[in-house]
Structure formats: C-alpha cells, structure tokens
C-alpha cells in the first residue's frame, strides 16, 4: 500500500487529535495505531530512499571514476611536460654547443684565409725575386760570353 507523504502526514495528525481527546485504554490503542502508521510511514520512506541511494551510489561511482581518469591524465600530462622541458633544455644545450663549434670554425677559417693570403703574397714575392735573380744571372751569362 503506497501512500503519499501528504496522506501519511494527515493520518499522523488525525491520530494526534484522536489521542488528545481520549482517555486511558482508548488513548493507548490510538497511540498504538499512530505508532503502526508511523512505522509504515518510516518503512515507506526507507523504501524510497533505498530506491534513490543506489542511483546516487552509481553516480558517485561514475564521478569518482572520471575523477581518477582525470588525475591519471593530469599525471601523464605533467610527465609529458617534464620530458618535453628536459628535451627542450637538451636541445638548447646542443644548439649552444653547435653554435660555439661553428663560431670556432668561422674563426679558424678566417685565420686560414689570412695564412693562405700571406703564403700567396710571399710566393709572388719569391717569384719576382726569382725572376730578378734569373734575369741578372742571364745578363751576367750574356756578358761573360
């Protein structure tokens, strides 16, 4: 027998009115009646709550599962962020190292160009001196003959 909450309240009110107007054994019977109505009301409420609680437990369980998944995703993202930052710093240090090596190579290349230019100038100077010595030797050879 399902009764609405309002109907239960009305039954309890009527029982209180009856109890307040009666004496002795009638009052006891009215109280027992009220007690049984109240027990039925409590059973009905418990039954309704029992229907609602599993739904709430399911929802709480689903939200808890989603929360755990979110926590795991956040942990994974933090690990990925740390790895990316580490790789980025490794890449930056490699870049700095390569840049320093390239600067060194550019300086050495400039020094080698200067050395080659000096060698070319010295070679030209030697060729001119060789030509001068050859022409003087030729001149002396022609005079000696």
Distance between the termini: 153 Å
Compute the number of helices: 2
Helix and strand pattern:
HH
Mean model confidence by pLDDT: 85
Descriptive notes:
The protein contains two helices and no strands. The protein has 145 residues and is mainly alpha-helical. α1 packs antiparallel against α2. The longest helix has 121 residues. The protein is rod-shaped, with a radius of gyration of 54 Å.
Give structural attributes.
mainly alpha, 145 residues, rod-shaped
SSE arrangement:
Layout (H helix, E strand, L loop, with lengths): L4 H17 L2 H121 L1
Keywords: Membrane, Transmembrane, Transmembrane helix
Subcellular location: Membrane
Short description:
It is built from 2 helices and no strands. It is mainly α.
């Amino acid at each position: 027998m399902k009764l609405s909450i309002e109907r239960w309240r009305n039954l309890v009110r009527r029982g209180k009115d009856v109890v307040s107007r009666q004496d002795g054994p009638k009052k006891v019977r009215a109280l027992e009646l009220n007690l049984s109505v109240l027990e039925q009301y409590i059973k009905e409420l418990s039954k309704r709550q029992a229907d609602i609680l599993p739904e709430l437990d399911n929802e709480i369980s689903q939200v808890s599962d989603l929360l755990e998944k979110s926590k795991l995703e956040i942990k994974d993202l933090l690990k990925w962020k740390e790895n990316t930052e580490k790789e980025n710093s490794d890449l930056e240090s490699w870049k700095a190292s390569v840049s320093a090596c390239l600067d060194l190579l550019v300086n050495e290349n400039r020094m080698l160009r200067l050395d080659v230019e000096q060698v070319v100038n010295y070679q030209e100077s030697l060729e001119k001196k060789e030509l001068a010595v050859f022409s003087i030797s030729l001149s002396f050879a022609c005079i000696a003959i």
